[in-house]
Amino acid sequence: MVRSSVFCSVVMTGLARRTIRRRVYTIAVGLLAVLAAPLAAQVTNVSIDPLMTKGPALAPVVIIEYADYQ
Amino acid sequence: MKEYDGRVRLVMKDLPLSSHPLARPAAEAARCAGAEGRYWAYHDRLFEEQPRFERERLIQYAVDLGLDEKRFTDCLDDHRYAAAVDADAKEARARGIKSTPTFLINERVLVGAQPIEAFREVIAEALRGR
Questions:
Q1: Interchain pair A63, B9: CB under 8 A
Q2: Is the dihedral of CA B71, B68, B36, B12 positive or negative?
Q3: Does B84 touch chain A (CB under 8 A)?
Q4: Which candidate among A19, A68, B29, B121 keeps its CA 20 to 30 Å from the CA of B114?
């Protein structure tokens, strides 16, 4: 009786740990997606000063560099 | 840029960090040079001279590039492009960009000084339309 209840509690603890880990992972992935989405979504909405660009306006790849000189 | 001739457009945006007090006048100076048609030449010079961006040096770099000294100095002293630099920095903050350099390559973000291979990989993906 005691043995089986110890066994059950060990199994349950393992399951609970796995469930918690999975939940933490899901939340972390969700958070990363939420944080990354605004960056990605707004790439096309950047104001552009033509004097500070190189390459054709209709190039398929646009690299926007945020820089400071120092 | 030469490697991707015609397929890549590079857009510079200013994000002078408050921890770099001379980055802001440098950014304004580059735009003053841009107003005279020498943005990229001045930009390259600034990177060569980093971090020597005191006022007299900024003016000297302009003179070296053949820019009109008075016009450039007036532009710099009047902070003619301060609002434009501010606008870029505000835009960056609104996008959650806090460090430099940060690159947005189509829909991908690269933060920090990355090896050239990292850029090649992301550009190749973008060109494949991924």
A1: yes
A2: negative
A3: yes
A4: B29
Right CATH for B2-98 from 2.60.40.10, 3.30.70.20, 3.40.30.10, 1.10.357.10: 3.40.30.10
Amino acid identity, residue A24? V
First to last CA, chain B: 20
Query: For chain A, what are the domain ranges?
Result: 2-52
Which helix (H) or strand (E) element contains residue A63?
A: strand A61-67
Query: pLDDT, tens digit, for every residue of B77-125?
Result: 999 999 999 999 999 999 999 999 999 999 899 999 999 999 999 999 9
pLDDT in tens, B57-76: 999 999 999 999 999 999 99
- For residue A42, the 8-state DSSP code is T
Residue B130, chain A, CB below 8 Å: the answer is no
Tell me the residue ranges of DSSP E strands in B1-130. Answer: 8-14, 102-105, 108-111
Least confident of A15-19, A55-59, B26-30, B94-98: A15-19
**Whole-number Å distance between alpha carbons of A38 and A55:** 26
Query: A66–B103: do the CB atoms touch at under 8 Å?
Result: yes
Q: Under DSSP, is residue A36 helix (H, G, I), strand (E, B) or coil?
A: helix
Q: Are B106 and A43 in contact (CB under 8 A)?
A: yes
* Maximum separation of any 2 CA atoms in chain A, in Å: 81
